[in-house]
Amino acid sequence: AEIPVRKICCIGAGYVGGPTCSVLALNCPDIQVTVVDRNELRINQWNSEKLPIYEPGLEEIVKQCRGKNLFFSTDMAPALKEADLIFISVNTPTKTFGLGKGRAADLKFVESCARLIAEVCDRSKIVVEKSTVPVRSAASIVNVLKANTKPGVSYQVLSNPEFLAEGTAVNDLKNPDRVLIGGEESEEGKKAISALSWVYRHWVSADKIIEMNTWLPMHFLPNESQALMPYPRFVRQPVPMSVKWPRPSGSIPVLDPKFLQASVGWGGSCFQKDILNLVYISESLNLTSVAAYWQQVIDMNEYQKSRFGERIVQSMFNTITDKRIAILGFAFKKNTGDTRESPAIHVAKHLLEEGAFLHIYDPKVEKAQILLDLDQLDEESGISIHTDPYEAAKGTHALVICTEWDQFITYDYQRMYDSMLKPAFVFDGRKILNHSALTKIGFHVETIGKRHGQSFQDHNWAGTNGI
Ligand code: UDX
Ligand code: ADP
Hints:
Layout: E1 7-11, H1 17-27, E2 32-36, H2 40-46, H3 58-65, E3 70-73, H4 76-82, E4 85-88, H5 108-120, E5 125-129, H6 137-148, E6 155-159, H7 169-174, E7 179-183, H8 187-200, E8 209-213, H9 271-284, H10 288-315, E9 324-328, H11 343-353, E10 357-361, H12 367-373, E11 383-386, H13 389-393, E12 398-401, H14 406-409, H15 413-419, E13 425-428, H16 435-441, E14 444-447
Parallel strand pairs: 1-2, 1-4, 2-3, 4-5, 5-6, 7-8, 9-10, 9-12, 10-11, 12-13, 13-14
The structure holds uridine-5'-diphosphate-xylopyranose and adenosine-5'-diphosphate.
Uridine-5'-diphosphate-xylopyranose is lined by residues 162-166, 233, 258-261, 263, 266-268, 270-271, 332-333.
Pathway: Nucleotide-sugar biosynthesis; UDP-alpha-D-glucuronate biosynthesis; UDP-alpha-D-glucuronate from UDP-alpha-D-glucose: step 1/1
Family: Belongs to the UDP-glucose/GDP-mannose dehydrogenase family.
Protein name: UDP-glucose 6-dehydrogenase
């Protein structure tokens, strides 16, 4: 590398920073990686036996690298000072007040990182923006750094958006379909880009590393002429037709089938926040129809979640007051313990409002987190959290599947049925179970995306797929 990268510091030990730096440390034994966070509890957890987040394969990597070339610390200043390259991967939540409230991304944490970097660093560095941020954030980081830089120090700011999905983070990071690196078009900018590119080339082949100027790798704002929005979150090939850079000839943006599974609704920290942000930016640019389009995506998702809750109540003879309902799965998707924006929260609240008693089980979500998400201090208010799915099901009127955990598919449903009140219901919000087998056992089964209730079985519903 033209600029040697021996030490990397990453600010933010969350779902992005933690896995990213672990995979980086694993693949770059010649680089020392220090992940810093102001949250002491989180850092202590990263340094303990029980990591603060669950991702398949992550624990093994952390155990292998921790203390060798991977460190977790709350002591930010020294780590920043000695780093050649700094990743910013702090959270960028939706603003809850002020201009853009409820829609715009709040960049206050990113800005405070830039201020801290400028304050403590006394030699030049590369600063890499990794948080999910709207277009032009790199420019604001540059501005904050420039206005506060110590004499003789200069910064190159790169944009390197993350594409990992929770639940598959380790695999996504080990085998990315692409790595986008954007920077300034100057000589210095190009040097910085090639330094970061050198880091990735430790394990990613050069043809997957796409170098460009800072604006391009950011989330493209669609314009009305583009039918399929070239928004990296949704489109496998995030290349707008109007932009020329190396892409397989003739390739057109297509939706990956892994994004086409019907569900009780999408959740997670990214989709809601990014779409709201897109609505906000579109509105700011007077792209009214684009803004309305994306707002409708949010509205449809809210509708999907509510509709599922309503379906449960309707199917159970229009009342669930004092009925016991087991919720299987609370995370926003399988293979994670994350509940941010999880549709399970929405469904659970709906059922609580209707007066049901909930028995909740999730293989990875902590009890305290579930109670917090449901605004409860303890289990006394109609909610029990279980560590065993059969215990959760026992004595209930219905099972509600909210997360597509693989283990749910292979449970002994006969055993659950035998322990439940009759008629026993299954509401499969992820369409993962064997519905005819459940019906044979005696369950009344309802799912999303297709009709399956026993009352419909005599009819030929072909062609009326959907609810
Ligand atoms: C997403 C993007 O996939 C990833 O590329 C980006 O870097 C970060 O945001 P993530 O939020 O972790 O990743 O999860 P994703 O797998 O996209 O799922 C989001 C939500 O949609 C989940 O609640 C999931 O259960 C739901 N979903 C996903 C569906 O309901 N149906 C699908 O077909 C896919
Ligand atoms: P993401 O999903 O984007 O990784 P997380 O919330 O999981 O988001 O992680 C972001 C981390 O960044 C949190 O652990 C938070 O404590 C940390 N963080 C936010 N702002 C700062 C800051 N100014 N300095 C240090 N750490 C920060």
